[in-house]
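Hi everyone,

Forwarding the result from last night's run.
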Amino acid sequence: MTRSILCLAIAPLLLAGCSEDNKPASAAASKPTVVSVVAMQPQTVTLTSEFGGRIVAFNAAEIRPQVTGLIVKREFTEGSDVKAGDLLYRIDPDTYQAALASAEATLARAQAAERNAATKTERLKRLNDERAVSSQDYEDALLALGQAKADVASAEAAIKSARINLGYTEIRAPIDGRIDASTVNTGALVTSAQTTALTTIRQLDPIYVEISQPSENLLRWRQAVRDGKLKHADQTSVRLTLEDGSSYQLKGKLQFAEAAISETAGSVTVRAVFPNPDHLLLPGMYVRAIIEDGQIDSAYLAPQRAIDRNVAGDAIAKIVGADGKIVERKLGVARSQGNAWIVTGGLSPGDRLVVEGGQRARSGDAVEAKEVKLDPATGDLAAAADPAAKSESGSVAVTQR
């Protein structure tokens, strides 16, 4: 009996204790989910495309002999810079000097014969006028004078040719540039018909970058420009990433695109020209070319971590509305840019885009929005934003890469 009374007395106390223990759990369950957000603001976004490319010399000249002879001297230092007109090689000139002297002697004989023929013709003309000689004699004299004049012209042409050949014994640089190693040494015999170049000169400043891109990219770009979705500048800017991952400091300009598509690769080659004062870019070097395709006005750079895809493949994101509740929206995404998606539809100025914690909240749930910053280089969350230090625009700065 006493035991029953004791149990009845203790039971209310145990129930009260259990009720007190459940209160914190219930309160914790009702606390809103904390999500990290970034405020979206429209901005002008520059679109870029990245493709592989090769460095090509702005101009290249293969040096070949135009006359046959022995190389008697090399006048340049291999690997140095040369100017147009600089002497590169000397070919033994003796044979060509003798040919010029012979041509000059032939001209002297032809000129003497012309003077003699001219004097004889003048004399026969007077006699023919007086009918002292036959007309045939005068006509023969005129014919001889014409032949003498032709001989003089032929001799003059031979002299000109001999002088040209003599000049070719001095091989000079046709362009400015850096000269390669010589393929011949002093004493080597070279010929006017040889196919092997003596050396090559390449102009390195400015320099070309040849870029191959799929033809479908070119079609999409032209369609976007035509439809007004993309603003395109007259001079397209190009930047380079070098083989070691570093960025080339000087910008280039897109110069032209080929008028035909490769039938085998389905690609088109475009060429950009870059200043290269330090000769850092060398022919044959592989680079990554970043081409500025144009600009999109009033676009949003949404962090990629904030965008998901539904079963239909549409881009969706979670927004914290003015009432503090989650709203799921379908977005119009143009393309990726660095660590962000370029959004052209579905966002409004000031929208708070959920970048972390969204998986714990469903559409319609009340949440506690905590504004954060993102690392521009990686897209990862940085330190929480200080409300007093927030920018007026609330936009996210994303480095374009």
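Helices lie at 2-30, 94-129, 135-167, 215-226.

Cheers,
N.
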